[in-house]
Amino acid sequence: MRLTVLGGGGFRLPLVYRALLADREEGRVGELVLHDVDAARLSAIARVLADQADGVADAPRVTATTDLDEALRGTDFVFSAIRVGGLEGRATDERVALAEGVLGQETVGAGGIAYGLRTVPVALDLARRVAALAPDAWVINFTNPAGLVTEAMSRLLGDRVIGICDSPVGLGRRVARAVGVAADQVDTAWFDYAGLNHLGWLRGVRIAGRDALPELLADPERLTSFEEGRLFGAELIQSLGAVPNEYLHYYYFNRETVAAYRAAERTRGAFLREQQEGFYGVMARPGTPALTTWDRVRAEREATYMAHNREATGARQERDADDLESGGYEKVALALMRAIARDRRTRLILNVRNRGALPGLDADAVVEVPCFADAHGAHPVPVAPLPDHASALVGAVKAVEREVLAAVDGGSRSRAVMAFALHPLVDSVSVARRLVDSYASAHPTLAYLRR
Ligand code: G6P
Ligand code: MN
Known about the structure:
With 451 residues, this protein is α/β, with parallel strands linked by helices. The chain has a domain at 2-164: Rossmann fold, CATH 3.40.50. 51% of the residues lie in helices and 15% in strands. The chain contains 21 helices and 13 strands. It has a six-stranded parallel sheet with strand order 3-2-1-4-5-6, sandwiched between helices. Strands 7, 8, 9 and 10 form a four-stranded antiparallel sheet that branches. Strands 11-12-13 form a three-stranded antiparallel sheet, covered by helices on one side. Strand 1, helix 1 (13-22) and strand 2 (31-35) form a beta-alpha-beta unit. It is globular. It binds 6-O-phosphono-alpha-D-glucopyranose and manganese (II) ion. Manganese (II) ion binds at residues 146, 165, 167, 198.
């Protein structure tokens, strides 16, 4: 079986390869094709993979290319993990938004819209190439903003594109641990999680037919023993009656997170730009030990993840050891790929077209809900409606995503303005107009917004 990774020079690729190396079953990936627009990044990552494969019998064969068509032709699975505009673009998105006093995070608020406006046209081009050259391939989308990008691609690829994120699994794992489920039993729990990507709520955790969440909600000490609990505080979680995805911190504590971002020496994007430049820089030197260098940088990236949000709570918070061990994305992606390739029915929380699963959204809206995956793809499981406050937020953000898609479709500046203006975290239409102007002058690729 062949797997093609778009954005194959990306920093997290060794996590995927580590998971591929651990897969000893029949029908596993035998050939990994890395595609990237940047040959230097490809060779840096290829060196890390070579170290990982050292001494492993029948490690998947790795090839790297900057030729997209060659990478796609005849492949079985495509992982799409691109970053349009690089980390420079991410840092710019943050800076422009913060200058207007609004959030510039890459998936939430103004930053997420800007990143979406830059990414969707590229993702659509990729989807067209996949449809032409590998029409039977399954596309697993990691590219952020993942829900929006998956919905854009689904317009060309239908249900053959499936979006993934590790935050719902991570949340589920942490909550399961807090209610005393053993690590190897987490997969037996049923997580009632629903919403959009980076905008969902965990409303129940059924273990052996019983919901363990009410008990957890009643116990403030256990409730604040894990990341989301500490971020939101017991009182809010108890009032909501559900544990929010960590990205909802930007909504429920918008002032504090914007303030923390403004006060920070560097935004997340600016920090990562420097960190990653350093990594790819030393990797260009022949003597650099590839795997150990990569692993050191990876650990630093994990340790600082969402650090500004933790700061915004006012309390000093370190991440738990288990959360520092990356092991999210690649596990979900591999579990999904296996479920499809081996027709092994597997329960996963995925980004798929709604098809009636989450009440209140149309059939084509990409939502993040529990699914069963098998050889025929990912099938969303019908879930209970969200409470009014949550469904209103989801509805508003979905409307914003649709404005982004309309802006891309029509090259429409006014639709782009509406995308910003309708977002719950952008508080004025004048701000929205200025954001469009500033983003357009910062990013030449947004010149398509002409009408
Ligand atoms: C989490 C999120 C992803 C995000 C990743 C890395 O896993 O769910 O969407 O890409 O963290 O975040 P970072 O800030 O390190 O780029
Ligand atoms: Mn994510």
